[in-house]
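Notes from the pairing session

We agreed to fold both candidates in a single pass and log them together. This is the raw record for the first candidate, unedited. Please don't reformat it; downstream parsing expects exactly this layout.

Candidate A
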Amino acid sequence: MSTMKLGASTPNAAWERGPALTSSANALVTWFEAQTQNGKPRMTRVPMGLNKGVAGWSTNGANIGATRVHVNDAALGIGIAMRANACTDATCAFLVEGWWRGAVDGTYEYEIRRALASPLTAAEFAAITHVEVEGAR
């Protein structure tokens, strides 16, 4: 599997397995909402699928399992939708790290802080079965 872009990944992160991506949207949302430490959200790592629309790749309606989210990718420099231009299928997947921001204006929001520079292959995407949370250091 590809690695996070140089300098972006937490080198000694100990990732703890969360619920399966096949869990219901409600179960995933409940788990994300519980991922806090000292009142702040904990970093999570998730496979995220973007869908191609008529006007190109969109950060609205991205999928984390059965959960649809709006993506805030301002921290990336090169946005996730721009990175998706390398994809030729109707869906483009990435492994991303970031924070669940909950419901914002009626839509769930996920803030990406780190992402693969290149999309996952279909086999890599299928091989990721669970979301993860960064463990205690």
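Candidate B (folded immediately after A)
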Amino acid sequence: MCTYITAVLPSSAFTTAFAAVVAAHRLSFEPCNNPHVQRQLKVNERYTTATGYMCDCGSPWFDAAVEAPRAPRNVDGEVAKLLAKQSPDGKRGRKLRAADPSPNAVARYRAQAPDWLAFLERALAVRGVLYIGLVAHSYSGNAELDEITLQARARHLVEELRDGTLLTLEHDVIHEFRVVDHARRVW
């Protein structure tokens, strides 16, 4: 099973200006014709791919294991236990230590988000793009054939990404990213 990120957007978003932003960020908002998902959307919404990759596993937004690596002190304890339990070569312990992220891992993984952050900020500035909903699902097959039951809709401000308060997102939830329209006092 692989995680794949798809998107839900209002039909009004699909303009030449939006396509230019998508192309500039090397994303791929192409139609994803999944009838199971389409039945769960609003009438004026479209379901699309988001990244165009075959697999989005390891995304810092949708993979809790990536976003919250083990603290080095916990790994040191695990390595010591493994070394004590096995042969002198300590193969498994060395493997675990090698897989341990550095103390700066969270910052490194968050650094991947600015591409999404920059995309969302630019795309949401385009007329007609009221929100961009991102959905992650662990697919057992084809994105257009899997029977997906969306669990909820969650609204997020792009500012939550900028200030780092939004970390890992749940799978099978439409995460609507918006900006605050201070003039109209809406988001």
